């Protein structure tokens, strides 16, 4: 089924009181906590996902996080990332969020899962068990203005170069994910 963009966005799609899924190191659910508390201080480990959208030229869709984001505002990151909410299956969450943020409906395939922790000064931290997904699409996104400040397509080679020259302009999870995708799963980034 071809991806279908939607029109301009209105209204918030992410809230500080969203209940996120707390997990142990093996991704077993151990409780729920609101998003704000999950990101306070050193953070509390919770389930998350990152999506990488690639076009037929092999370019990756990057997003620049909105200025109003609590953590890493205006940093460049992967195509889409977020969290499943309490009671929400991961497959439903990735589909929902890709539609909310970018107005796209794309088949997504899981690639790997990893845990990371990153602190953003006094604003808080990410401590996530993150599932990484890849999908393929040529359509331009319709970004949600509260989530995304800008977007662009970039070749893998140009992205590698930018990450080497200006690593501080990218979110920490994106740098980790991109390096592992390039090293361990390069075939998963190739359009068929």
Question: How many beta-strand elements?
Answer: 9
- The amount of helix comes to 10-25%
Mean pLDDT: 93
Structural class comes to alpha+beta
How does the major sheet shape up?
4 strands, mixed
Shape: globular
Distance between the termini: 15 Å
Strand-residue proportion: 25-35%
Query: How are strands sequenced across the largest beta sheet?
Result: 6-3-8-7
Gyration radius from CA atoms, angstroms = 16 Å
Helix and strand pattern: EEHEEEEHEEEHH
**Count of separate DSSP helical elements:** 4
Based on the structure, what is the oligomeric state of the protein chains? single chain
Low-confidence stretches: 1-10
Produce the secondary structure layout.
Layout: E1 19-23, E2 29-34, H1 35-39, E3 46-54, E4 60-65, E5 76-77, E6 80-82, H2 90-102, E7 108-120, E8 124-136, E9 148-154, H3 156-165, H4 172-184
Parallel strand pairs: 3-8
Antiparallel strand pairs: 1-2, 3-6, 4-5, 4-9, 7-8
Notes on the protein architecture:
The chain is of the alpha+beta class and 192 residues long. The chain contains four helices and nine strands, in the order ββαββββαβββαα. It has helices spanning 35-39, 90-102, 156-165, 172-184, and strands at 19-23, 29-34, 46-54, 60-65, 76-77, 80-82, 108-120, 124-136, 148-154. The chain starts with 18 loop residues before the first strand and ends in an 8-residue tail after the last helix.
């Amino acid at each position: 089924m071809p991806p279908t963009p939607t029109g301009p966005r209105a209204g918030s799609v992410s809230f500080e009181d969203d209940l996120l899924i707390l997990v142990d190191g093996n991704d077993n659910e151990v409780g729920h906590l609101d998003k704000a508390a999950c990101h306070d201080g050193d953070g509390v480990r919770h389930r998350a996902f990152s999506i990488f959208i690639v076009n037929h030229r092999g370019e990756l869709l990057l997003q620049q996080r909105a200025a109003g984001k609590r953590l890493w505002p205006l940093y460049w990151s992967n195509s889409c990332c977020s969290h499943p909410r309490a009671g929400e299956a991961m497959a439903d969450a990735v589909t929902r969020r890709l539609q909310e943020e970018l107005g796209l409906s794309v088949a997504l395939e899981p690639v790997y899962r990893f845990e990371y922790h990153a602190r953003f000064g006094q604003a808080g931290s990410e401590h996530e068990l993150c599932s990484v997904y890849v999908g393929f699409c040529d359509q331009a996104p319709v970004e949600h203005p509260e989530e995304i400040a800008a977007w662009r397509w970039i070749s893998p080679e140009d992205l590698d170069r930018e990450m080497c020259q200006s690593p501080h302009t990218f979110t920490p999870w994106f740098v980790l994910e991109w390096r592992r995708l390039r090293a361990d799963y390069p075939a998963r980034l190739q359009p068929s």
